[in-house]
Amino acid sequence: MPVITNIDDLHAIYRRRVPKMFYDYCQSGSWTEQTFRENETDFDKIRLRQRVAVDMEGRSLKTTMVGREVSMPVALAPVGLTGMQHADGEILAAQAAEDFGVPFTLSTMSICSIEDVARKTQAPFWFQLYVMRDEEFVDNLIGRAEAAGCDTLVITLDLQILGQRHKDLKNGLSAPPKLTPATIANLATKVSWGLEMMGTPRRQFGNIVGHAKGVTDTSSLSSWTAEQFDPRLDWGKIRKLRDKWKGKVILKGILDPEDARQALEMGADAIVVSNHGGRQLDGALSSIRMLPEIVEAVGDKIEIHMDGGIRSGQDVLKAVALGARATYIGRAFIYGLGAMGKKGVTHALEVIRKELDTTMALCGEKDIHDVGPHVTLVPKGFRGEWERPASNS
Ligand SMILES: Cc1cc2nc3c(=O)[nH]c(=O)nc-3n(C[C@H](O)[C@H](O)[C@H](O)COP(=O)(O)O)c2cc1C
User: What positions does the entry give for FMN binding (predicted)?
Assistant: First the structure.
């Protein structure tokens, strides 16, 4: 059993274990991957203030996210195709999150269906919605999430059309993988992944196949998704969805203060400052760099969450210090899941909790609610030497 000391350890095992197609799907950003890289590297620019001679006993990381008690300010982000990273991946990740006391968010594009996850868990999980053109299908999805006991709807706003990720095109990404000579050669080296996958019936998009009109197999699915994401999604439609859903609503994919103000007007319970893990608008600033400006704009009126680039408990602490109530991890939990299933997700959460707890203590704080900008040192100009050019109009 390898000794896991950090998220990189899980990443290394994950890389060896999972087929290239799915590893690449996770480990990419769009186009040049600048935003993907900077989500991580911008965290490194923020430093922490060491404080001493503070009583560190009785520390607490507990907080709430949209009213729900969480054991630390971290949730699992919605990640499509999680069930291809490990057989029954969404179920395993949801169970690990439940045991740990943090929320799990199920993607619309999951392999295990809403009902699969509900059957295998007790705690309500959150459902992430991609808005599709087919309103009947969207209503049906929302109804299924409600019937499954989901109490929070996370509406993703930054993927009306897809940012191109070169590797997915080159690899011919599909679920399940199409058997080309290249994939067969690669799958032959991923024996345990393949055996586990053969042991589960869940190998297609569980929320879609058999539920959306005209989608009965995966070959019709790729054309369906390309046609179905709704490019007309606007604030009017978001308002209608807000009114339709009786529980909490989180708007995900906000990266601009103006959009944050709009989200506030929609009556959302929280926003997620996010650029989709650098997978959509390449060239956008990192989430952590945009966070302070958004906190300044709406932080006293709405709960602010953030994601993008979090690979350690120190990153979580920095995000909380700069004004996020809580964070989400995407790739960090996928590395754990792909490496060793449910146990790996638990490892990822434990690594992050331990790092967060120790770092908070060494910064002289013992309650996560007391963590603020005073624990950080931020380089001059961190918020950006960028300006909005004066408009010609
Ligand atoms: C492989 C992968 C698939 C994703 N699929 C979805 C998705 O289906 N829905 C969604 O709202 N966000 C999706 N995201 C974005 C994540 O929810 C989250 O915003 C991002 O992963 C955060 O960045 P991090 O991976 O650096 O933690 C995906 C991210 C990755 C890496």
Answer: 78-80, 107, 128, 130, 156, 252, 274, 307-311, 330-331
Confidence of residue 218 (pLDDT cuts 50, 70, 90): low
For ligand 1, whether the C-beta of 252 sits within 6 Å is yes
Beta bridge pairs of residue 104:
76
* Ligand 1 centroid from CA 389, angstroms: 31
Distances (CA, A) of 258 to 255, 264, 307: 9, 10, 19
Instruction: List, in sequence order, the alpha helices (H) in the chain.
Output: 7-17, 20-26, 34-45, 82-85, 89-100, 114-120, 135-147, 166-171, 181-187, 191-198, 218-228, 235-244, 257-265, 287-298, 313-321, 331-362
For residues 134 and 148, give the distance between their C-alpha atoms in angstroms, rounded to a whole number: 21
Geometric angle at alpha carbon 128, from 123 and 133, rounded to 5°: 145
Q: Taking the alpha carbons of 330, 253, 88, 118 in that order, is the dihedral positive or negative? A: positive
CB atoms within 10 A of CB 38: 23
Q: CA 340, CA 271: separation in Å to the nearest integer?
A: 31
Query: Across-strand partners of 376?
Result: 48
Ligand 1 geometric centre to CA of 41 (Å):
18
Mean pLDDT for the chain overall: 95
Note if 305 is an active site residue. Answer: no
Q: Determine if ligand 1 sits within 6 Å of the CB of residue 156.
A: yes
Residue 393 has pLDDT above 60, yes or no: no
Contacts of residue 305, defined as CB under 8 A and 6 or more positions apart, other chains included, come to 65, 75, 250, 270, 271, 272, 273, 324, 325, 326, 327, 328
Percent of the chain with pLDDT over 90: 87
User: Given a cut of 60, is residue 254 above it in pLDDT?
Assistant: yes
Q: Whole-angstrom Cα distance, residue 183 to residue 232?
A: 36
DSSP state of 369: G
Handedness of CA 224, 226, 229, 234 (dihedral sign): negative
Q: What is the pTM of this model?
A: 0.97
CA-nearest residue, atom 6 of ligand 1 = 79
The domain covering 7-15+44-160+196-377 belongs, at the CATH homologous superfamily level, to: Aldolase class I (3.20.20.70)
| Neighbouring C-alpha atoms within 13 Å toward the C-beta of 340 | 16
